[in-house]
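User: Just a sanity check before I run the rest of the batch. Below are the structure tokens for the first item. I only need the designed sequence back.
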């Protein structure tokens, strides 16, 4: 990443979440535990879905991809934040800053599109059950996942090619725990008003469009469910409720940071922590702990290792 501005500003200073050493020590322990839980929870979810043939279905194929995305979404910013709690000089190189911006938007946008794919999967399962495995075949599922990664990549590159050429010549302090694009843009030695509008519009194309598609999908699903049997409706509502919870946990913070920013520092930090740490932690809990098939798969995996250990 060789920007012409890199000779003027070679690194940025991150203020982090707190200045007090005691508070930072406490936050270090909290976020270290949370990150370990994120990695463990999502890795376990991926292992269960990959190894248990009862879970080899389109819904769980997409869920395994969601766990993979969640793990990396948190990994873009959380390890750096955790190590910075132990450092007095919280700096990040220009290349590191640009990398954080790129991968944060790449993965977050990809996850938004993936959630739309999961909503489509639920729509087909509930509204067209007889044709489910014909429509949601492996080729279709793979295509949906590749589409999510492609859209995420294009979205991230559209930001990177603009921001990497900005003239950074003076202030280099970022009041956050990572290189958040709205804050980095404000450090450019130029009027950033037009860039802010461009960023809001770009993020809105992905975020708001996906959010509207999700609302339409789940509205149609709920209308269909109302006409079905009580048992089927109950199971469908349970699955869709979990999906909607995940959608709200990701979309609401991102919309208020990148599309309709509140420009309140502590709120922005809270929302950034929420979608980069809390959401990847809650996703495996929401899908695994509330899902009987995942619980049964965990029991089968546990029994397998116990039996092999006794032989």
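Assistant: Here's the designed sequence for the first item:
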């Amino acid at each position: 990443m060789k920007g012409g501005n890199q000779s003027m500003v070679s690194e940025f200073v991150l203020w982090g979440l707190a200045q007090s050493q005691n508070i930072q020590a406490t936050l270090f322990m909290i976020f270290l535990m949370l990150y370990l839980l994120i990695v463990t929870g999502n890795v376990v979810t991926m292992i269960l879905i990959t190894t248990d043939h009862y879970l080899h279905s389109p819904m769980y194929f997409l869920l395994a991809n969601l766990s993979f995305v969640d793990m990396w979404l948190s990994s873009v910013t959380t390890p750096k934040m955790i190590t910075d709690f132990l450092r007095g000089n919280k700096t990040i190189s220009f290349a590191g800053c640009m990398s954080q911006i790129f991968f944060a938007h790449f993965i977050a946008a990809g996850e938004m599109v993936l959630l739309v794919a999961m909503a489509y999967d639920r729509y087909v399962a509930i509204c067209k059950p007889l044709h489910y495995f014909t429509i949601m075949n492996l080729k279709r599922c793979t295509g949906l996942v590749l589409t999510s990664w492609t859209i995420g990549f294009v979205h991230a590159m559209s930001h990177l090619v603009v921001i990497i050429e900005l003239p950074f010549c003076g202030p280099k302090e970022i009041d956050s725990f990572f290189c958040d694009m709205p804050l980095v843009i404000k450090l450019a030695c130029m009027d950033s008003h037009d860039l802010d509008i461009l960023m809001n519009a770009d993020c809105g194309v992905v975020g708001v469009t996906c959010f509207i598609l999700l609302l339409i999908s789940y509205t149609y699903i709920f209308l269909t469910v109302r006409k079905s049997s009580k048992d089927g409706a109950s199971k469908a509502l349970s699955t869709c409720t979990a999906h909607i919870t995940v959608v709200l946990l990701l979309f609401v913070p991102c919309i208020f940071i990148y599309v309709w920013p509140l420009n309140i520092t502590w709120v922005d930090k809270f929302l950034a922590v929420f979608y980069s740490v809390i959401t990847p932690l809650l996703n495996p809990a929401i899908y695994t702990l509330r899902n009987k098939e995942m619980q049964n798969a965990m029991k089968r995996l546990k029994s397998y290792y116990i039996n092999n250990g006794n032989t």
